[in-house]
Amino acid sequence: MPTLLQIDFAFSGPFGDELAEALKDLAISIADEPGFGWKLWTENEGTQEAGGIYLFEDAATAEAYLEKHTARLKGLGIAEVRARVFDVNEPLSSITNGPVG
Hints:
Elements: E1 3-10, H1 16-22, H2 24-30, E2 36-44, E3 49-56, H3 59-75, E4 81-87, H4 90-95
Antiparallel strand pairs: 1-3, 1-4, 2-3
């Protein structure tokens, strides 16, 4: 079953185009993760937060990525990583144009 992973954390920047340039190689490597479907990168300079919304093919691949990414973030000095995992209701998501199928 498709699985959505939501991650966010305190982040002091950079944001926008500067962040896109700095993390381009990371984005390329994320795209090659097992079971990966897509990621929306999230950022809010006003509240000093960043993160992402991911779609994986199943809970196992989402959980494996979460473990790997949490360790990577902690290695970069991010103390608290907030994450939530959700099953995706494909029939309802299809009606509302959700990119899951």
